[in-house]
Amino acid sequence: MSFDSFSEFLAMDGHGQYVWLSYAIALVLFVVNLVSPLLRKKQLIAELKRRLRREKSTS
Amino acid sequence: MAENKKWMPRWFYQMASPRWSYEIMGKLMPWFAIPAAVLLVLGIAWALAFAPQDYQQGNSFRIIYIHVPSAILAQSCYMLMAVAGAIGLIWKMKVADMVAKSCAPIGATMAILALATGAIWGKPTWGSWWVWDARLTSMLILLFLYLGVIALHSAFESEATAAQATAVLALVGLVNIPIIKYSVEWWNTLHQPATFTLTERPAMPAEMWVPLLIMVIGFYCFFAVSLMMRTRNEIIHRERRASWVRELIEKQ
């Protein structure tokens, strides 16, 4: 451990805001890269299902 | 090629089948997702709490564990996008076009991450968020290339035309990659030289560079997962009239 207490860990000797902001941005962008393909998949499947149902009802 | 000689490995031709690609990516995904989760959690804990602080930069140095992996990945992803685009152009391989298209949004977020963390790191270290330095400027151009590829994709009605146009743009933009790499050597820059090189041992102690290596591998695994998710969506979308996709949807 490079820190003696949790408050020291948060403060990072005055650099806390820079370090935590960087890691927060990274977290947000990682979540975006996981959630956006998942949402797209859901949307695609719903769309294709609707199309299949429509084709069945007309034929 | 008249005689149509098969001089590439078998999987290269199998990759041309959207169905085969869809299935193999589904099988491969957990093999990247689990290492990605383990390596990133381990790497971040090590980076934030256990790595020693830098004697000059103090704790702001911990930003390196996000900054370097994202910058490396942004460039690797660009090279993959250009190579996949070229394969799509030469062999008319649809799956390669889909991989190239899927690379762009991920690469763009990685370029943004590298630029943002660089700016945040620059403030306490150089006293400025941004300087028009060669490394920073060439990295900004990389982001614009990604945004250009994304915009160009949405400008075409036909998927095939869009794939050709973006592949050409990606290939032309490839010249930027060596410029980014050697910018710290060719010009006098504020940016420090590369941390990792293939030929020399890192200048930092092991307890600093081992977590960095873990983060780099973790970023690559995460990228593989995200890329496969996007490519699989793209396959379903473009093959929506194929019977195997219809069966797949009906089963859902």
Secondary-structure blueprint:
The complex is a heterodimer of chains A (59) and B (252).
Chain A: H1 6-11, H2 16-58
Chain B: H1 10-14, H2 18-50, H3 64-91, H4 94-126, H5 134-155, H6 159-173, H7 176-186, H8 206-238, H9 243-251
Helix pairs in contact in B: 2-8, 3-4, 3-6, 3-8, 4-5, 4-6, 4-8, 5-6, 5-7
In short:
The complex is a heterodimer of chains A (59) and B (252). By secondary structure, chain A is mostly helical.
Structural class of chain B, by secondary structure, is: mainly alpha
Largest β sheet strand count, sense and barrel closure of chain A: none
Q: Which class of secondary structure composition applies to the elements of chain A?
A: mainly alpha
Radius of gyration of chain B: 20 Å
Low-confidence stretches of chain A: none
What is the largest interface, and how many residues per chain?
Answer: A-B, 32 and 42 residues
Give the overall average pLDDT of chain B: 90
Helix content of chain B: over 70%
Beta strand count of chain A: 0
